Known about the structure:
By secondary structure, the protein is of the alpha+beta class.
Amino acid sequence: MKLNTAAMRYLSNDDFRVLTATEMGSKNHEIVPTTLIVQIAGLRGGAGVGNCISELAKANLIARVKNAKYDGYRLTYGGYDYLAIKAFSNRRTVYSVGNQIGVGKESDIFVVANEKGRKCVLKIHRLGRISFRSVKNNRDYLRNRQSASWMYLSRLAAQKEFAFMKALYENGFPVPEPIDYSRHCIIMSLIPGFPMRQLSSHEDPSALYSSLMSFIVRLANHGLIHCDFNEFNIIILDEPKSEDEQFVVIDFPQCVSIDHVDAERYFKRDVDCIRRFFEKKLGYVSDDYPIFQRDAKRVASLDIDVQASGFSKKMVKEFEKAISESREKGEDSTDHEEIGEHNGDEEDEEEGGEEDDEEDDEGENEEGVDRDDEPEE
Ligand code: ADP
Ligand code: MG
């Protein structure tokens, strides 16, 4: 999925109003009727709105959906990206967007900078992508599905990750500094280092091993299990601060409370991941490793604090359910596109002309698209 930053510069204020109107309309409409967009945008003169709509569609920020009972548009990922980045820009947390440094199944990672030139990381969550084919092959899919939309899911993931990162950062854990979030995007500090998976040797594997295991235990003592504690999500610092401070941990959307029914299993899985990596890659084996029942002793409750900060139990449940549903149903979801590649076929798909299984975000469920993050003026 490319990030269309070119459109950001030339959109007029009216275009932006119309884009925002489409976002607001999608709160209650899977496909936002054109008449509603016009109404919400509140611009005088219908022709003006029409021009804005075609500009936005040309830039792939909204997409026309013809096969609906009425004429309407939906926000695309590009449009949602635009709104988030515009919010960061208004808040002066992002001034420019640079290279993409990470591509995951469910996220895109870019280096960004603020006005002062400070480099940060923009993580764009992309959940709930469903291929066009799977939608077509499952006619009841849209009608019966209870899971939430890609917009809602991606936004929840970002919100959850930001909340956990903030709690951990404030409690002195080695995690990136959380800087800002909007919609499905978060901004955090850029960690100067490389993923642990690139390590092929280490001068003192036992020290690194111990500090990683201590991290897992300390995290559990604070009420949390990472659940994806692997060599991809541990960044080895280029300049270690000390023996105990040679890494930073990233990627928190799947974090769970130690009160989770599967906590023991998740804890063991994180521990085993590290043991396996050390054995395979660094030839280091140790009989000394933490065990949930024996070593996890609650001293603090970040799991509860995070809930109190806005990521409620209900949201956690909803999120877990939706993620597992979307993963089941969207297994053949599209891979990420190369950066810079033209992304001009989205409109065609929407127009119903070409058969293209790259459709990734067809169908939204209005339920739960609860926007507390309206774009700033
Ligand atoms: P995903 O959920 O797709 O795995 P991650 O948060 O793990 O996303 O990020 C993917 C990759 O991007 C990481 O493996 C890492 O190489 C890079 N990355 C992410 N966040 C940072 C950061 N704050 N500083 C430096 N590199 C980062
Ligand atoms: Mg990761």
